[in-house]
Amino acid sequence: MSKIYDLLIVGGGPIGLACGVEAKKAGLDYVIMEKGALTNSIYNYPVNMRFFSTSERLEMAGIPFMSVENKPTRTEALEYYRRIFTHYDLNVRLYEAVETLDHADDLFEIKTSKQTYKTRKIVLATGFYDLPNLMNVPGEDLPKVMHYYKEPWPFIGQKVLVVGGANSAVDAALECWRKGAEVSMVLLGDEVDQNVKYWVRPDIMNRIKEGSIPAFTNSKVKEITPDSVIIDSPDGDIEIENDFVLAMTGYRPNLALLDQLGVELSLDEKKRPCYDQANQESNVPGVYLAGVVCGGLNTREFFIENSIVHAESIVKDIAHKLGS
């Protein structure tokens, strides 16, 4: 007979790790599945990224988060979550992707890229950084189009179009411009997002105002060719020479996993999953939701700092129902 876990957690990000810590404290037999590296989404953040939140607000599991400055960097976050993983000796299966989830009787069966697991309860803490929002325009599949930005060095001396006006787009535009790229931006609205980091927003606004980084406002990409980009602007179609497109158009959670388990979604454009806010249990008994996935397509509702509490609520409810 194959092993049956009390709890299987899908996602080895900060919230998945928080759930693992609480599960271990409660004496549950648990396992965390992560398709990539530990805290894979943070690993894939831009190299020089700095968090909006302070280190104190990101703290969890009783482990102090020490950072050189008030706002921690990506590297400091990676080290912090590594320390939590090591300190609690968490049972995490890295580089093992969940492929299918099924429900039979009182157990769940999870097939991964390596084997099959059985568990009494499931937590989906899958984040949202794995599926980019596509522009759905001709040429988006060209090699020069990127939906993830790491660092500016490949773009020295290149003509780069940054699509989007949120934090990731602004960081990419400023970094590439400062390293010698010829940067332009395409913005859906009149200006960059009002929620851009307050210490960065004046910088990009001044660069746009002085013409160092031209911005096509109230515009969108219409077509991408190997040597240019056609922009749909209020003045009509504009074609500009181009070497790379950084499509910083945001990301969305993997709702397919919810669908496999029968988790209901709201009928509006937000596609919010159905769950009990008291214990994070979805409409499917035994399936719990933690972190940003709770907001559906509204990825600005839940963050690390306001989702850590999900872990304690979830494990408390599971332990009670399992009689632990």
Structure description:
The structure is a single chain. This protein is α/β, with parallel strands linked by helices and about 325 residues long. The protein contains eight helices and 17 strands. Helices cover about 25% and strands about 25% of the residues. The strands form four sheets. Strands 1, 2, 3, 4, 5, 6 and 17 form a seven-stranded mixed beta sheet that branches. The mean pLDDT is about 95. It folds into two domains: about 5-130 and about 250-320, FAD/NAD(P)-binding domain (3-Layer(bba) Sandwich), CATH 3.50.50.60; about 135-245, FAD/NAD(P)-binding domain (3-Layer(bba) Sandwich). The radius of gyration is 21 Å and the shape is elongated.
Gist of the model:
By secondary structure, the protein is an alpha/beta fold.
Sum up the structure in keywords.
single chain, 324 residues, alpha/beta, FAD/NAD(P)-binding domain, 2 domains, seven-stranded mixed sheet, five-stranded parallel sheet, 8 helices, 17 strands, elongated
- Percent strand equals 15-25%
Shape: elongated
Low-pLDDT sequence parts? none
The name CATH uses for the topology of the largest domain is: FAD/NAD(P)-binding domain
Classified in CATH, the superfamily of the largest domain is FAD/NAD(P)-binding domain
Q: What's the quaternary structure here?
A: single chain
Percent helix range = 25-40%
Mean pLDDT: 94
- Span between N and C termini? 22 Å
Compute the number of helices: 8
Major sheet summary line? 7 strands, mixed
CATH architecture of the largest domain: 3-Layer(bba) Sandwich
**Count of the separate structural domains:** 2
Secondary-structure element order, as H and E?
EHEHHHEEEEEEEHEHEEEEEEHEH
